[in-house]
Specification:
Elements: E1 4-11, E2 25-32, E3 37-41, H1 48-56, E4 63-68, E5 71-72, H2 78-81, E6 83-86, H3 98-108, H4 113-126, H5 142-154, E7 161-165, H6 173-190, E8 193-198, H7 201-207, E9 210-215, E10 218-223, H8 225-230, H9 235-240, E11 247-250, E12 252-260, E13 263-271, E14 278-282, E15 287-290, E16 295-296, E17 298-304, E18 308-315, E19 318-325, E20 336-339, E21 345-348, E22 351-352, E23 356-357
Parallel strand pairs: 3-8, 3-9, 6-7, 7-8
Antiparallel strand pairs: 1-2, 1-4, 4-5, 9-10, 11-14, 12-13, 13-23, 14-21, 15-20, 16-20, 17-18, 18-19, 21-22
């Protein structure tokens, strides 16, 4: 296990980058704690896999350093870093049995036969493959092969970090949930530093202690699932986390109020006069459809998704989403919306502004 430090780290796939836009991974300075479980979350092409491959040693950064427990490993091999990595598509030895695939990393390190047998059996039970240990991998399905890859990544107890690059892509949905649960159990039992790359917010939020949200080659926020939901530091986090994502409403802000198309909205904090691209960010869960005071909306449709209703409405020409409890009655007289004042965030040029107590 290791504390991982990203020191002035950046990477470009161009031989001579001349501007920030040339960098697939923009400058990062972060410490990732020993023994934590992290998820790297973001859309395709945002730099997640690039960062993971730099951490593992498969890719050398254009600038900066990677340190494990304070030791510079920037030019060290994956082997020297003592890393286990599981890729998006299964990497198995087809001519070997499931048992031999799982045992391979341990036998390579000269572990005793009894330890290998015990460890392989435990991992096989964890991934639900104890009944096919004697079968060759060649005849197995893609999701079964990926379970072998996962198992081989988890079989060693002495690794500095376990890295997972979208490992559940080929796994069926029910098994995905089980494997995520098992990975979390493994983390709690052995305390490995784990980094899990995904574009799926459900995978990230159910797996990780801390979620690292990336956008356009940059880390825009690191936080717990609750922090990402309640206080997104960047509008991308608000949009990407949650279903539906955060409502973003153009406004002018000064003091304890905002103005949206001439209508006033009370804020929970006090702000200086803000310039630039100013928006209010409000989660659909903190918007209420009412008959009383508030901003005027026109309801377009109501989607009943079982646990709650999603109301799609029009606010001054822009769509706004509202989440209402399952049993909520929605009448034609409900033409206004009100916000939970404490849950309104203010953004300038996409970054959240910290106000003062009102």
């Amino acid at each position: 296990m290791a504390k991982i430090t990203l020191d002035n780290l950046a990477h470009s796939y161009l031989p001579k980058p001349t501007s920030e836009a040339d960098f697939a991974l923009k400058e990062l300075n972060h410490d990732w704690a020993d023994g934590e479980a992290y998820a790297l979350l973001g859309a395709s092409g945002c730099g997640k896999s690039t960062l993971l491959n730099i951490i593992s040693g498969l890719l050398h950064p254009s600038q900066g350093r990677i340190l494990f427990d304070g030791k510079d490993v920037t030019r060290s091999s994956t082997t020297d870093r003592n890393i286990a990595q599981v890729f998006q598509f299964p990497v198995v030895y087809d001519t070997m049995t499931v048992r031999d695939n799982l045992a391979f990393p341990l036998r390579n390190r000269g572990e005793s036969a009894s330890y290998v047998a015990e460890r392989v059996q435990k991992i096989a039970e964890m991934i639900g493959m104890e009944d096919v240990l004697s079968k060759r991998a060649r005849g197995l399905t893609a999701d079964a092969k990926q379970k072998i890859s996962l198992g081989r990544g988890m079989v060693r107890e002495d690794v500095n970090a376990l890295l997972f690059d979208e490992p559940l892509t080929v796994i069926d949905p029910h098994m995905k949930w089980e494997l995520r649960t098992q990975l979390k159990s493994l983390h709690h039992e052995f305390g490995h530093t784990m980094i899990y790359v995904t574009h799926d917010q459900t995978e990230a939020l159910t797996f990780a202690d801390k979620v690292v949200v990336m956008h356009d080659g940059r880390v825009v926020q690191i936080g717990t699932p609750q922090e990402l939901f309640e206080r997104p530091e960047h509008t991308f986090v608000g949009y990407f986390i949650g279903s539906p994502g955060m409502n973003l409403i153009p406004a002018s802000v000064e003091g304890t109020s905002a103005v949206v198309h001439g209508a006033q909205v009370v804020l929970g904090q006090r702000y200086a006069a803000l310039s630039g691209d100013v928006k209010l960010g409000v989660r659909p869960e903190f918007v209420a459809l009412t008959e009383g005071d508030g901003l005027p909306v026109k309801v377009r449709r109501v989607e009943d998704v079982g646990r709650h209703k999603i109301i799609r409405a029009d606010l001054f020409g822009n769509e706004i989403n509202i989440v209402a409890a399952e049993g909520t009655s929605i009448t034609p007289d409900m033409t206004r919306i009100a916000f939970d004042t404490a849950q309104v965030n203010v953004y300038v040029d996409d970054w959240r502004q910290q106000g003062e107590a009102a």
